Amino acid sequence: MLEIKNLCKTFNAGTINEVMSLQEVNLTIEEGSFVCVLGTNGSGKSTLLNAVAGTFLTDAGTISLNGREITKWPEHKRACYIGRVFQNPFSGTAPAMSIAENLSLAAKRGKKRGLGWGLPVSVRGELQTRIKALNMGLEDRLDSPIGKLSGGQRQALTLLMSSWIRPELLLLDEHTAALDPKTAAKVIELTEKIVTEGKLTTLMVTHSMQQAVNLGDRIIMMHQGRIKYDFRGNDKKRLKVPDLLALFDDLRRKDQIDGTVAELLLENYV
Amino acid sequence: MTLLIGSVTIGLILALLALGIFISFRIFDFPDITAEGSFTFGASITASMIIAGFNPVIATLAAFAGGLLAGTSTGIIHTKFKVNPLLSGILVMTALYSVNLHVMGKSNVPLLSEKTLFTWFENFSIQVSGKDAVFNIIGWNVPAKDIWTLLFCLLIIVVFSLILLWFFRTNLGTAMRATGDNDQMIRALGVNTKGMIIFGVALSNGFIALSGSMLAQFQGFADVQMGIGMMVWGLASVIIGEALISENSLGQVIAGAVIGAVLFRLLVAIALRWGMNPNDLKLITAAFVFIALVLPGFMKRTKKIKLNRQ
Ligand SMILES: Nc1ncnc2c1ncn2[C@@H]1O[C@H](COP(=O)(O)OP(=O)(O)O)[C@@H](O)[C@H]1O
Ligand SMILES: [Mg+2]
Fold first, then answer.
1. CATH entry 3.40.50.300 includes domain A2-94+151-240
2. Closest CA to ligand 1's atom 5
């Protein structure tokens, strides 16, 4: 279970470039829940995931994962429990190293890395079967450098790597945004399979409302560093793309009115 | 021929320097100028310890440890205090200049009458081949001790290359390579990348100090100036090595750096023999590395221009 309480993050505080990317965000995600995060550009979705992963430390609030308070932990320590896939397909793999080496690195996520042989012959069999399950024809290319693969192939491998050791939390940040529609569909299919089979607690940012409607058991919608809407259970099941579009329109309309006026209006009339 | 054998021996000794530069420059993309200080540091530690009567093996290993320490300082200054890589190296290199003078007590320490690793190699030669023995190599008479010295250096460099190759294939070494390749990715897999950089820069300088230590013992003195230009020298060796290999496998890259170091030393010896002014050596080395660094990009650009014209 992930518990986020009053989380705040401001970038470039005190300068003209100040952005309040997270403003008192509260969010609890139950064990095994698959949450889709929607929101306009710059609404703080990536910031939220990065804050949980520990890319930077937050200004206020707490984050705990399964009872451990991780708010001040460095990124690499949180990685023992958290699997990640980034938006950029190049971010999740080491390009100069082979497919097998990349996977063997993932097989040690959060474990002690000593002077044992990095790529023992005995694991090659397992690597092969698990890569074969991706259905991308990569099982015969274990020793070619990952940098030679397409974005979709690399993203599929990153997904496999992030879940090689079962993570307590899986963070996916628009991991299909950089892919062509066909490849994106394939990676989404794989995502669903991995998440369902492992019953993984998942936080997935997506730009596609269709994906949010089809996948997961909960949708949260962010705007200006806050969670504005939160749908779960039957509400989530009933939600369709036009409903989400209407909500986006609503947020946008409120945006056009000056912030303080909007607050006044809300107080007086809502 | 004696000149040739001597050059190859020095080339092998400097191959350790090339391996160190390979770690910082090629694994981490860290332009680590600490090299110039730690090369001399290795030499001065070994020289002072040998003069103080320590066993040469211990004095040589102490140089390695000294290099580790120098590299650790640079790594910490860079990662923990967020000083840029080049400046971190410059700080430690500058500080080491004073440290080296303190360690040696003066700017030059002669070792000719001391027992060094190379005295051992010569004694071994006397025992095996006899005093003043010569080997006949394709018509040339070469002192046996020179051949034995060369073979010992070859053995040492092969052993260290294999250790490095083995290390880079372990879990720890694989994570180290990944840190240089994509630090974001390996952090997400639970590796402390700052620690890895510190460790890597330390290892690099350990090899470089070892090289300085052996060179001091071979040439019979340690000098506070002997590190100057060594980073570019090592880089030149690594670049030559990369031009020689056909694929980017770890074994080939490491072997390439070693062969590159020997070839580069031979090229320099030949150039000097042909009358090149020794004062121009560093200028020419720097020019060589400059050309090697910009040439690939330049060729790509001209190719592109040609394609555009078509
Ligand atoms: N590292 C950073 N430094 C400065 N500003 C940042 C940084 N990361 C995000 N921001 C800013 O925070 C806001 C939210 O960004 P982000 O979380 O990436 O939005 P998105 O919802 O599109 O993923 C944006 O205005 C962005 O410019
Ligand atoms: Mg984003």
1. yes
2. A11
Q: pLDDT by residue (tens digit) across A49-100?
A: 999 999 999 999 999 999 999 999 999 999 999 999 999 999 999 999 999 9
Tokens of A165: 């050791």
Count of H-run helices and E-run strands, chain B: 12, 4
How far is it, in rounded angstroms, from Cα A206 to Cα A213?
A: 11
Instruction: Return the domain boundaries, chain B.
Output: 2-276, 283-310
Distance A60 CA to ligand 2 centre (A): 21
Distance A52 CA to ligand 2 centre (A): 14
Whole-structure pTM over 0.90, yes or no? Answer: yes
- Output the residue whose Cα is nearest ligand 1's atom 1: A11
* Closest-approaching ligand to the CA atom of A87: 2
Residue with tokens 């069999």: A125
Is the alpha carbon torsion for A90, A96, A102, A106 positive or negative? negative
Of 1.10.3470, 1.25.40, 1.10.287, 1.10.12, which CATH number belongs to B2-276? 1.10.3470
Tell me, what's the ipTM? 0.90
Over residues A154-184, the pLDDT tens digits come to 999 999 999 999 999 999 999 999 999 999 9
| Ligand 1 contact via A11 beta carbon (within 6 Å) | yes
